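Following up on my earlier message about oxa(dethia)-CoA. Here are the inputs again, as you asked, copied directly from the submission form:
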Amino acid sequence: MFTSKITGLGHYVPENVVTNDDLSKLMDTNDAWIQERTGIKERRHIKKGDGNSTSVMGVKAAKMALKEANLKATDIDMIVFATLSPDMYFPGGGVEVQELMDMKTIPALDVRNQCSGFVYAMSVADQFVKTGMYENILVIGSENHSGGLDFTTRGRSVSVIFGDGAGAAVVSRSEDDQGGILSTHLHSEGKHKDELALQGPSTEHWVPEIIAENPQEDIPYYPYMNGQFVFKHAIVRFAEVIHEGLEANGLTTSDIDMLIPHQANLRISQFIQQKLKLSDDQVFNNIQKYGNTTAASIPIALSEAHKAGKIKKDDIVVLAAFGSGFTWGSVIIRW
Ligand code: UT7
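Thanks, got it. Here's what our run produced:
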């Protein structure tokens, strides 16, 4: 077995900053409610004509990650692309990245695990590298939420939370058998699939059917979230899967140097921090600036934390996510 290591990180967010006050001009909401319930102050939205899309943002983040890894696009052996908001219904974003970055005819795999997408994608990359099949894998999480949200008062409990952006990591084979990705832990519970979902368009809810059958106040082509239900499950599963990962490696919460939780809600991150008895220095949050960027949130946060010098060699870094599906997972890394 080989060791797999993160050798490069990158992130990109669109320039267009959307504050809570900006949203309150579109719907019945306000800065106080949003900050109190979610911790979010602002988020980024793609602006029509700025050239961005889910795949394009993914490529921008990927270029930064490749530069850090000191690799060329042609050195990459596989792309794993996580998103819930691809540019097209099919094919997925992976092949767009392959084309936009002028890569070899390498495999491009799309991961559809929403907020857990990056953790799932890292797990896939980790297996391919550890077994020796590939040497360098580009893992991307990217989302264009703003293209598909309901910015009327009807959609306010969802639309104020989500933002656009992308993050990327290069996972490479390493000779160092002490460090790298120690283990990954993945879960799902499909009985809760309807609690956080976007139903259509899909083969079960195709466009003419949606238009014909749904009154204006009940539109299943906007995301639905049973917020409190999701919140309650999130805090349980986050803690569970972090403990599972630590125990698998003979570690405890006091060994954590940096926890990067999926940025779902600052209150969720703070709840986990308290539950695991971690100090402020052991947890990184940036939801205040970007909102919840789903599959992009962990790689953006990881890239920012690393570039800010908050992650050092030999640190135990824990990535953890929970979201639609429900799906959840963790990645335990010795940096
Ligand atoms: O990343 C994937 C996983 N996602 C999550 O983990 C999200 C988990 N859930 C949450 O983060 C929170 O449940 C939310 C932030 C979504 C909502 O916060 P909450 O404290 O659970 O609020 P709520 O849904 O219980 O709504 C409370 C009130 C309601 O009004 P009434 O019925 O009490 O009169 C809502 O209609 O707040 C109202 N409300 C709003 N008011 C102003 C809902 N959205 C807004 C809004 N602005 N944007």
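One observation from looking it over: The chain has a mean pLDDT of 95. Hope that helps, and feel free to reply on this thread.
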